Amino acid sequence: MAILTVTHKENLELEGNQYGSSNTFTIQSINEAFKRKVTCVNGHATTIAVFATETRTSDGAIKKADAKYIRITNLDKTEAVEVAVIASGTLYQITLKAKQSHVLGAASVLMLSEADTSPSFGTMTDLEKISVQPTGSAVVYIELFVASS
To answer: Count H helices, E strands: the chain?
Structure first.
């Protein structure tokens, strides 16, 4: 078993004032790591991760109850990508500019997407998969990292 230590750091000095910060947290009892670099082609959605109740139920699946930390990073220097975070019956999408990352916590009880602007803060659902599609004409490389217990 290992401990995952994550540090998010911003460094911004503006007119002599420091606005950056650094926040560190740890996740205990990590015994699996999944890391891959994926080629994503414009015009095609590429599934970069699948989460399932058991790893044996889907090819290449990550057990959603065990996934504790998920990071998606756009490795490209100029092109953006759209990322779809998909649960059962719902999803949300974001744009990741070049070199940006999107971080998620545990895959279980992770998200609730709604079609209005009034949050219900209701029952969260489990993550099912993550898909990516470049927004420009280039091939883009995505890095996926998942730490599981």
So the answer is: 0, 13
